Amino acid sequence: MQLEIITPEIAIFKGEVEAVQFPGLDGSFQVLKGHSPIISALKKGDVKVDLTNALEDEESTNELIQKDAGDQKVIRVAIKGGVVEMLNDKIIVLAE
Question: Which residues contact 25 (CB under 8 A, 6 or more apart)?
Fold first, then answer.
């Protein structure tokens, strides 16, 4: 799946992922490859991303991306809210 996380100021992340967990308004939820199309509002929290490949050092220069200590293929991105759309295995997050 292709994931893109953007804010009005900066593109935080763009890359290939296995799974993504979101802080939804009614609780957290996860999307995997082949998930039905979805649009959902997000609340303040962390977007947990399971990467296809470990993040390279030059890719992790954004201070908004936190690497998971236990797994090099997991990152977290703190958001203040936003909207997520998934369609045809492409996920776009418009975050604050």
Answer: 40, 41, 42, 43
